[in-house]
Structures are given as C-alpha cells and as structure tokens.
Amino acid sequence: MSPDLLRSLVWMDYRLAVLFAVLLPLILLIWATVKQAEAMQRLLIIYWRVSSLLAITVYLLIGDLKIGFLASFLARILIPVGLWFWVDLNEEIDDQRSSPLKFVFSAWRWALTIYSTLGAIATIPFLQCAFSDASYPTSFCQVWREAPLIYKDILHANYRPPFLGFLGIVGLVIYLIYFGHFVIVRLGRQGRSAIEQ
Fold it and tell me: What is the per-residue pLDDT across 110-137, written as a single tens digit (0 to 9) for each?
C-alpha cells in the first residue's frame, strides 16, 4: 500500500471515530436525557466508560508509547461488546415504542458496531508496531501518531509529549483496575444486567 493511501485511510478512520465515537453519542446522550429515556442513558454512560480507552490511546500515541496500538485494538473490540452485552438494557430499548430517538440510537449502535468491528480487523496488521523493537520504525506505524500530535498541538500546546504519555499510562492503569473490578466482582454478582443491585 502506498504511503499516501495509507495516510488518507488513517485520517479517514480518525474522522469517522470523531463522528461515530464522540459527536453522535454525545448528541444521543443529551437527547436521551431530555426525553428521559433511562435505558438509553444507562447504555450511553456505559459506552462512555468503555470508549474512554480510545481517549487513553490518543495520549499513549502522543507519548510515543507503543502500547497505544494494542489499546486501540482492544477498544475497537470492547466498544461493540459494551453496546450489546446488557440483556436488561437491550430488552428495555427493544420494548420502547418507535420514535426518532429510538431509530437514531439503533442506527448509531449498529453503525458503531460495524465501524468498530471493521476497524479492529483493519488494525490487526498494525499490532506489529506494538511489538517491534524500534520506536515506530517506519511510516507504516508513524502515520497513526499524526492526528494525536495535531490534537496535542491544539489542546495541549504547552505540555510535552512524554508528560501526556504519562497521563495516558495513568489512565490505562485506572481503566484496567476498573475493568478488572467489573470482570471479577460486578459481573459475578450481577451477570449481564446493568441495573445496580
């Protein structure tokens, strides 16, 4: 694949991520809150918790930390799982009568599931960047840092990449602790129910 084609595909992926993983769920959360659609609100809150791994990935890549490639791949797997895992929320949403909110929410959920699944498959070749000895040895790996570095220049111009990478590591550790608690404690008690007990 030519470097220009790779760069355009990576940038398209970042743009789609902003649309499907940030803007639309934010709009849907506000809409669901206004309409008092509690099941959708809970699922969207769960989504934001799970998808925070994408934000962590950006900071890891800013800091030139190769684990960011692995975090990106895992985020693309965990997002669809988080969207469809909860039996009680799925049933509540299915039982709601048809409305523009339900239609847009369902369309977004399917679109994000397809996007994340295809993204996970497309990211598999880049996992070698996480395990290579050299730090981003080729433009094949380096291209994934371009958008995070522009993000850094816009929002964190006064901070150095190593510090932002450190914040990414701290975020990843907190994420893993929370995820471990969920899998070991909460899942055992509540199963596939999102209702607090």
Answer: 999 999 999 999 999 999 988 877 655 5
Whether 148 shows a pLDDT value over 80: the answer reads yes
Q: CB-based contacts of 137: which residues, under 8 Å, 6+ apart? A: none
Helices 161-181, 38-62: crossing angle, 10 deg rounding: 140
What residue spans of the chain are helical by DSSP H? 3-17, 24-34, 38-62, 67-84, 87-95, 100-123, 128-131, 139-142, 146-155, 161-181, 187-190
Q: Are 45 and 57 in contact (CB under 8 A)?
A: no
Rounded to two decimals, the pTM is: 0.89
How far is the CA of 180 from the CAs of 7, 172, 176, in angstroms?
35, 12, 6
φ, ψ for residue 2 (rounded to 5)? -70, 150
Contact 73, 109 (CB under 8 A): no
Q: What residue type is 160 in one-letter code?
A: R
Number of neighbours of residue 129 by Cβ within 10 angstroms? 23
- Both structure tokens of 11: 């940038």
